[in-house]
Amino acid sequence: MVKKLDLDLKVLDGLEEPVVKQARRWMGRARRMADDATHSARTALREKHLRIGVTGLSQAGKTIFMTSMIKNLEAYVRGADTLPAFTRNGKSGAIQRIEIKPIPSEDIPYFPYDEIHRRLASGREAWPERTTDVAGVNLVLHPKSSLSGRLNVEIFDYPGEWLVDRTMLDPDLTYVTWSQQILDRLSPYSELEEWIAFQDYLTSLDWNSSAGVEEAAREAHRRYKALLFACRDKVGLRFLQPGRFLCPGPRGELPMHWFAPTLVTEVPDRPTADSLYRTMERRFDAYVRNVRDFFERYFGRIDRQIVLVDVLAALSEGKVVYNDTRDAVNEIAATFEPQGWLGRLLSWSSVPKATFVATKADYLHQDEIGNMVVQLGVMVAGGLDSMLERRFTEKPRAVAALWCSRDDSLDGRPGVAFRNVRTGGQTLFRFGQIPGEVPSDEFWTRDGGIFTMPRMEPPRLDPDSESGMPHRGLDAVLFDVLGDQL
After folding, report:
1. Is residue 407 domain-resident?
2. What is the pLDDT of residues 359-417, one digit of tens each?
3. Is residue 203 domain-shared with residue 235, that is, in the same domain?
4. Is residue 473 classed as helix, strand or coil in its secondary structure?
5. Four-CA torsion 57, 58, 64, 66, nearest 10 degrees
6. How many domains does the chain have?
7. DSSP per-residue string spanning 408-477
8. What percent of the chain clears pLDDT 90, i.e. is strictly above it?
9. Quick one: 74 and 199 in the same domain?
10. Does one domain contain both 78 and 40?
């Protein structure tokens, strides 16, 4: 706290009048500055700020997660018992009032949580569409205690496709090395017609030529983008770069997007600036700079990061999708390690704490949720012990942000029951074995065959959201990121 300036002006007696006047003016300005500093310090003590990023691979459930967070906080403040973890940890009634505002930056779209909730409450075909742009909301939490200042919680959401671009910020990554990584990662899908068309076109190109460069670059980009969509929609892959090729955002496709991986394994000898190779390389570099600017702008000052992982989808869709998801999550997790290359690159004083969350836990009976948390640790860091030892994360969690099922049994074993979107009737479902390690080949042939998980119908929701949204485990995640601030 800055002490108010208190000076005795009697020492000025006897000095020449102009000197006295000038000294008095200086002392007056000094007092005002001290008063302003005191006010600022007191205001800072009354007001705290917390920035939270909610992210995850595509279809991990970010939109429902954020909507449930907001609606259950609203209901909790009104007195509903929607956040039992706060009560268990001695924070019952800690929040007296909540205000929900746009992010204090006029170019960040407002996260439409009310609209999403109304749609969920309207019927069974109510699940939100894919996220296509960054959005945010500012929750102003007024604590019950007069000793605590109000807490401004800014929460950001952005497309899962963009998350995988985070690994492109490695300062050692070049256009050539990135291309080799991409082609190696996608080579198992060489039977796809889109792969064949892309590969045939790449082999026909003269990378040192400056003739017809623009047409060649655009066509290579078009064929590569078609391959990415095929890998996503036909195979189920999620670790697909560049992410903005799949989801360009509201600005649409930009000239910096018009590149594709190269078959060149070494930088050509003195290529001209207008050659196809240099054109593609420049656009790759421009794309990476744009990604860096995005993360610096929206996430350079993030305090907490929530990373959502759809563990069950990865296991249900077979070995190829599981390995792809595990590789993506593992590489993304490494960027949150203390003193990692991304933290140094973005000049963060410290990498934000990350909480990894397995979503869609309502597909499992309560007795089996612990198995999903163990598998999450395997996917993130090779195991729970390693995950905690590396100290880049809070305790992993499992969540159903909108709980659509009830615990039941199937053939005498734990299962769940819910209304099925496709049939409109009740479905009894048991996911099956969840391994506590990276699944072996035997697992995939015996127990882990590819299957499509049934789609749940949302439960009946109160349109006025007085009682919040039914969830499983969301309160524990919220307490992890907010509890120490209240």
Report:
1. yes
2. 999 999 999 999 999 999 999 888 877 777 766 667 889 999 999 999 999 888 999 99
3. yes
4. coil
5. 50
6. 3
7. EEETTEEEEEEEBTTTSSEEEE------SSSPPHHHHHHT----PPPPBPPPP--TT-TT----BSHHHH
8. 46
9. no
10. no
Q: Long-range contacts made by residues 4-10, C-beta under 8 angstroms, separation at least 24?
A: 4/31, 4/34, 4/35, 4/38, 5/30, 5/31, 5/33, 5/34
Residue from 101, 188, 186 nearest 136 by CA: 101
* CA–CA gap between residue 308 and residue 317 (Å, rounded): 18
Distance from C-alpha of 64 to C-alpha of 120, rounded to nearest angstrom: 9
Question: 182 and 320, same structural domain?
Answer: no
Q: Compute the distance between CA of residue 245 and CA of residue 1 in angstroms, rounded to an integer.
A: 51
Q: How confident is the model at residue 260, as a pLDDT?
A: 97
Pairing of strands 95-101, 135-143: antiparallel
**Whether residue 282 is found in the same domain as residue 318:** no
Q: Please tell me the number of Cα atoms within 13 Å of 421 on its side-chain side.
A: 13
Q: Is residue 289 part of a domain?
A: yes
In what helix (H) or strand (E) does residue 26 lie, and over which residues does it extend? helix 17-46
156 vs 388 pLDDT, higher one: 156
- Banded model confidence at residue 40, pLDDT cuts 50, 70, 90: very low
Q: Are residue 328 and residue 187 in the same domain, yes or no?
A: no
Residue with tokens 């691979």: 57
Whether the per-residue pLDDT at 228 is higher than 60: the answer is yes
Q: Dig out the tokens for 192 from the structure.
A: 């796809």
Q: What confidence tens digit (pLDDT) does each residue in 67-80 have?
A: 999 999 999 998 88
Residue type, position 230, single letter: A
Q: What is the pLDDT of residue 411?
A: 87
Specify whether 40 is located in the same domain as 56.
no
pLDDT tens digits, 402-458: 999 999 998 889 999 999 888 888 999 999 889 999 998 888 886 666 778 899 988
Question: Is residue 382 assigned to a domain?
Answer: yes
Instruction: Name the residue range of residue 193's domain.
Output: 170-293
How sure is the predictor about 13, in pLDDT bands with cuts at 50, 70 and 90? very low
Q: Which of 293, 328, 349 is the last residue of a domain?
A: 293
Q: Which of 293, 326, 358 is at the close of a domain?
A: 293
> Does one domain contain both 223 and 288?
yes
| Residue 22 located in a structural domain | yes
Cα 395 to the center of its chain, rounded Å:
17
